[in-house]
Design a protein that fits this description.
The chain is mainly alpha-helical and about 160 residues long. Helices cover about 60% and strands about 5% of the residues. The protein contains two helices and four strands, in the order H-E-E-E-E-H. It has a two-stranded antiparallel sheet. Strand 3 and strand 4 form a beta hairpin.
Length: about 160
């Protein structure tokens, strides 16, 4: 007996989350072959390159510390009912590991993004405060100079016959 449920739900849920931007683009949308959902590199003995993208964050320069290694998507073999059922079990295990890993990556990314944002906010405040102080100093200088010129001009007009 072939089992479908969890593979179909997992593949569709993950594909939906990817398209909505909830999960980083780790996979392309699921492929249906004779009513079976496949997200691996081999379906019924056929190689289907590009269905699973090796989207390691470390390849892009950032890595989630403390999350371990990104789970590797299983290679599916749906050539027989027994192999198909084994593939379903592998995808179920991958789904659990991927969800756990993704949750860890999300937490780590949020932590890093918050730290970057806080640092940027502090730098912006420093620049803003310095700029405001300079502008206030210049305004004060113009007020002082204008007052001195008006006072001197008035005095000179009095002293001039």
């Amino acid at each position: 007996m072939m089992r479908k449920g969890s593979v179909v739900v997992a593949a569709l849920a993950l594909a939906g989350n990817v398209s909505r931007g909830v999960v980083p683009a780790l996979m392309v949308p699921a492929l249906t072959v004779s009513g079976l959902v496949a997200s691996g590199a081999v379906v019924a003995g056929l190689e289907l390159p590009g269905l699973v993208a090796p989207a390691n964050a470390a390849e892009r320069g950032w890595s989630a510390t403390g999350c371990g290694d990104e789970p590797t998507a299983p290679t599916l073999d749906v050539s027989t009912v027994q192999h198909y059922n084994a593939s379903v079990d592998q995808v179920d295990a991958y789904e659990k590991a991927a969800r756990t890993y993704n949750a860890c990556v999300t937490r780590a990314a949020l932590k890093d993004e918050t730290a970057i944002s806080d640092e940027a906010r502090q730098k912006i405040a420093y620049v803003h405060d310095s700029s405001a102080a300079i502008q206030a100093r210049i305004a004060s200088n113009f007020t002082r100079l204008t007052t001195a010129l008006k006072t001197a001009g008035a005095k000179l007009q009095k002293d001039t016959p």
